[in-house]
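User: I'm preparing a small set of examples for a lab meeting where we compare how different chains pack in three dimensions. I only have the primary sequence for this one, and I'd like the structure in token form so I can line it up with the others. Please keep the answer compact; I'll paste it straight into my notes.
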Amino acid sequence: MYKGAKGRVYCHAPRRTATSFRLAEYFELHPLNPQPRLIRRAAEIVRGGGLIAYPTDSCYALGWHMGDKHVLERVRRIRQADRHHHFTLVCADLAEVGRFARLETWQFRMLRACLPGPYTFLLRATRATPRRLQHERRKTIGVRIPDHPVPRLLLAELDEPLMSSTLLLPADELPLTAGRQIAARLAHEIDAVLDGGDCGIEPTTVVDLSVTPPLLVRKGKGALGPITGRAL
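Assistant: Understood. Below is the structure token output for the 232-residue chain.
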């Protein structure tokens, strides 16, 4: 059991092992109007300590409850990510971002110009952010607000942020983008696939706002105009 971000107590779902043959649940979602009952079920899985694959406005991602350290280790294993890998806190709005990341006025303005949208911003974490979710050396956290109905409704149902990581497997050059393909590759590794249709293979544009001037870490789907102040 563990406490969520707002003091709720949740029970962990049974952890998967290398010998587990339990298949991931598969939800076919309408890409524009996702079925509420399936969104509720996905939220139950996350609250129960499960790991989901879900669509975003850039590409598919892995999602899990921010209070669950066991799922974090599962994600590290799937992604083969070390302690310096930046995971992302997916938030419903800027007020929620402000709970977990330190925002100066200029940073807030840049986020407001870009979000919701296909951007990830690296910011200094606040004390509300568990240390295991921060970059081990820099004490930063990636934050984003996606412009896609599935995560938007899922966040509303959870009523708290979702930890996330791009669904890019170590042996692949591009992220997975088809629900059936994700289910075939990860059926025994994750707990649910939220198939919202093909959402592309281009990841978010990543900008480090913990330094001055801001640093472009990765050019992705998000346009650079709101970052540079110039039409590009």
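A couple of notes for your slides: Helices lie at 36-47, 69-79, 94-100, 105-114, 149-158, 179-186, 225-228. The radius of gyration is 17 Å.

User: Perfect, thanks.
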